[in-house]
């Protein structure tokens, strides 16, 4: 049978919907061959448009192919020694930076905890009415001064100084044990340096409170009564300390004897200069506040002028305390330089025992039986 031919000229337009009337067999037979023609046209369009993306993909694949193969052929580059050394230095610097940051954070946390504990202890002491340092008003009157009458900085200093005494006892015991065990010179030096550094901490504590409450340092209310008898401008007298330890560090070489004698002479001259300056300040203060009549009520204009001048003169007391502490600091460090390690160890042990006996004397005096 001959296949049907394409119906090029249909009997009616293709865009017009066929009428809803019943289609005759002739009409349906004539339109049936048109459907294969549409499928054939669609297949031809698909055939024309289909291979193009494949070609594009193939082209793109050909374009990328040589690049990949060239990179594989080259392989990873090996850094030169200079680059490797720089990378190692960067890693080491980063590691040290992390360690410093960690140590700084730990220090901040420790300081925060310590400050919180100090505030709690101070608040507890105030609520219980504790007296610090055996405070005595007027020296001979024997009246204790409550915490509320001293500044906050002075109360904090008393707590810190009590802790310093406990730590000083521990450091001294370690130094004494090291001397008794006859450790080598280099190992013993570590304990001596630790004791010297702990002495410097006391000087730092005093300098901090002297800026806000210098009279608390000068009055010696943070010391025991026996220690206050031997105080000189907020601390011990360096020349007297040299006399005390001389018999404890023998035998000395001739050069050491000359060095200690020179140190003692210069220390005495500095003490005399500071004492004369403080005495001149006392006389000047007396002249200032008595320059006008001591009648009551005073002339307020003159009175306020005198008080202003006296306040300016009193501010120089902090300078005297700072110079006296510097002299004490220089004397201890100079002795450490003149003496050998073992002599310096015996020297620091003798100083610690001297102040321990003064504190023990105060305790015995306060615990003595009272006579009616």
From TrEMBL:
<keyword id="KW-0238">DNA-binding</keyword>
<feature type="domain" description="BZIP">
    <location>
        <begin position="80"/>
        <end position="124"/>
    </location>
</feature>
<dbReference type="GO" id="GO:0000976">
    <property type="term" value="F:transcription cis-regulatory region binding"/>
</dbReference>
<feature type="compositionally biased region" description="Polar residues">
    <location>
        <begin position="21"/>
        <end position="30"/>
    </location>
</feature>
<dbReference type="InterPro" id="IPR046347">
    <property type="entry name" value="bZIP_sf"/>
</dbReference>
<keyword id="KW-0805">Transcription regulation</keyword>
<keyword id="KW-0804">Transcription</keyword>
<feature type="domain" description="DOG1">
    <location>
        <begin position="154"/>
        <end position="368"/>
    </location>
</feature>
<dbReference type="GO" id="GO:0005634">
    <property type="term" value="C:nucleus"/>
</dbReference>
<protein>
    <submittedName>
        <fullName>BZIP transcription factor</fullName>
    </submittedName>
</protein>
<dbReference type="Pfam" id="PF14144">
    <property type="entry name" value="DOG1"/>
</dbReference>
<dbReference type="InterPro" id="IPR025422">
    <property type="entry name" value="TGA_domain"/>
</dbReference>
<keyword id="KW-0175">Coiled coil</keyword>
<feature type="coiled-coil region">
    <location>
        <begin position="101"/>
        <end position="128"/>
    </location>
</feature>
<feature type="region of interest" description="Disordered">
    <location>
        <begin position="1"/>
        <end position="85"/>
    </location>
</feature>
<dbReference type="GO" id="GO:0006351">
    <property type="term" value="P:DNA-templated transcription"/>
</dbReference>
<dbReference type="Pfam" id="PF00170">
    <property type="entry name" value="bZIP_1"/>
</dbReference>
<dbReference type="InterPro" id="IPR004827">
    <property type="entry name" value="bZIP"/>
</dbReference>
<keyword id="KW-0539">Nucleus</keyword>
<comment type="similarity">
    <text>Belongs to the bZIP family.</text>
</comment>
<feature type="compositionally biased region" description="Basic and acidic residues">
    <location>
        <begin position="74"/>
        <end position="83"/>
    </location>
</feature>
<keyword id="KW-0010">Activator</keyword>
<dbReference type="GO" id="GO:0003700">
    <property type="term" value="F:DNA-binding transcription factor activity"/>
</dbReference>
């Amino acid at each position: 049978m001959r296949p049907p031919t394409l119906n090029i000229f249909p009997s009616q337009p293709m865009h017009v919907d066929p009428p809803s009337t019943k289609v005759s067999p002739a009409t349906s037979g004539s339109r049936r061959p048109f459907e294969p023609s549409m499928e054939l046209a669609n297949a031809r369009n698909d055939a024309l448009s289909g291979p193009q993306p494949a070609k594009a993909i193939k082209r793109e694949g050909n374009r990328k192919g040589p690049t990949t193969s060239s990179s594989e052929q080259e392989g990873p580059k090996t850094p030169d020694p200079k680059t490797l050394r720089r990378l190692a230095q960067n890693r080491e610097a980063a590691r040290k930076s992390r360690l410093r940051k960690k140590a700084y954070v730990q220090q901040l946390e420790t300081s925060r905890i310590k400050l919180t504990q100090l505030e709690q202890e101070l608040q507890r002491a105030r609520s219980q009415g504790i007296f610090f340092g055996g405070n005595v008003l007027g020296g001979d009157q024997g009246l204790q001064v409550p915490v509320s009458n001293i500044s906050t900085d002075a109360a904090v200093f008393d707590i810190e100084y009590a802790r310093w005494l406990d730590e000083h006892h521990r450091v001294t015991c370690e130094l004494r044990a090291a001397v008794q065990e006859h450790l080598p010179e280099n190992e013993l030096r570590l304990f001596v340096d630790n004791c010297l550094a702990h002495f410097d901490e006391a000087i730092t504590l005093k300098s901090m409170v002297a800026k806000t409450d210098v009279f608390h340092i000068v009055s010696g209310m943070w010391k025991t009564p026996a220690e206050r008898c031997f105080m000189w401008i907020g601390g011990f007298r360096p020349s007297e300390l040299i006399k005390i330890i001389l018999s404890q560090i023998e035998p000395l070489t001739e050069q050491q004897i000359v060095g200690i004698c020179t140190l003692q002479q210069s220390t005495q001259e500095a003490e005399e200069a500071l004492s004369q300056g403080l005495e001149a300040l006392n006389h000047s203060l007396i002249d200032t506040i008595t320059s006008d009549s001591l009648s009551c009520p005073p002339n307020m204009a003159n009175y306020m002028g005198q008080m202003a001048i006296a306040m300016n003169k009193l501010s120089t007391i902090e300078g005297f305390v700072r110079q006296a502490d510097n002299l004490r600091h220089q004397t201890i460090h100079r002795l450490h330089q003149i003496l050998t390690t073992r002599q310096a160890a015996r020297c620091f042990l003798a100083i610690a025992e001297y102040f321990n006996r003064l504190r023990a004397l105060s305790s015995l005096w306060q615990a003595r039986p009272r006579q009616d």
